[in-house]
Design goal:
Required for flagellar hook formation. May act as a scaffolding protein. α2 packs antiparallel against α3. The chain has three helices and nine strands. The chain folds into two domains: 65 residues; 126 residues, Immunoglobulin-like (Sandwich). 30% of the residues lie in helices and 38% in strands. By secondary structure, it is of the alpha+beta class. Strands 1, 2, 3, 4, 5, 6, 7, 8 and 9 form a nine-stranded antiparallel beta sheet that branches.
Length: 227
């Protein structure tokens, strides 16, 4: 889902920023403009040693150096504004995630009477006896889901009832997926479905962080799927 960050064209500000920086440079009495540089160069030529005059290459080289420094400064200004625009765009996109569910790597999840615990198992090698053990937050085994044969990414759902068929209280639960591989009991990587409660927009190189119900803060780049 794409959200426009700055009007119809998020890059319009680049031209505006460059004009602003030029205006600021002209209005700043301490700034060295191209006209000032040329004046200094003219003075230098008039007062140079006639026995050792400045060569054309040296003269052009100094002009090129000044232009390069000025261009880099303008480019930095443009990228700074671009970064701020991208952060605003991230904030808009992040706000659309609140209330949605995402799939993230985890071995814990939340269960409520109207919201079963859902997760995914990455079965790296085919197994015939895949099972998911559900534990309370304190680590007590409350139920086991027999999955049977499985291979690849396999989804599972726990309805919130223990092994005796009694409903468990809503809250946070742990889970572990295991199966027999080459005669050895092997644990597999798991992920869980969680609701996004809020989104934190980072600064600089720090991107979005999503705060998930029952799990906590997770970097947005770890989100595997938006449901």
């Amino acid at each position: 889902m794409a959200i426009d960050g700055v009007g119809n064209n998020p890059y319009n500000f680049l031209n505006g920023t460059q004009q602003t920086s030029n205006d600021d440079a002209n209005s700043d009495p301490g700034a060295l403009a191209m006209s000032d540089f040329l004046s200094l160069m003219t003075t230098q030529l008039m007062n140079q040693d006639p026995l050792k005059p400045m060569e054309n290459g040296d003269f052009l080289g100094q002009i090129a150096q000044f232009g390069t420094v000025s261009g880099i400064a303008d480019l930095q200004e443009s990228f700074s504004s671009f970064s701020k625009a991208m952060q605003s765009d991230q904030a808009l996109q992040g706000s659309s995630l609140v209330g949605r569910s995402v799939l993230v790597p985890s071995s814990i999840g939340t269960m409520a009477p109207d919201t079963p615990l859902k997760g995914q198992i990455n079965v790296a090698e085919s197994v015939t006896d895949l099972k998911v053990n559900i534990y309370s937050e304190a680590g007590v085994l409350v139920d086991t889901i027999e999955m049977g044969s499985a291979s690849g990414y396999t989804n599972f759902t726990w309805d919130g009832f223990d092994s005796q068929g009694e409903p468990m209280p809503a809250g946070v639960y742990q889970f572990q997926a295991t199966g027999t591989v080459n005669g050895q009991n092997t644990a597999f990587a798991t992920a869980t479905v969680a609701r996004v409660d809020s989104v934190l927009v980072g600064s600089g190189s720090q991107g979005l962080t999503v705060n998930l119900a029952g799990i906590g803060s997770v970097p947005f780049n770890e989100v595997q799927e938006i449901i």
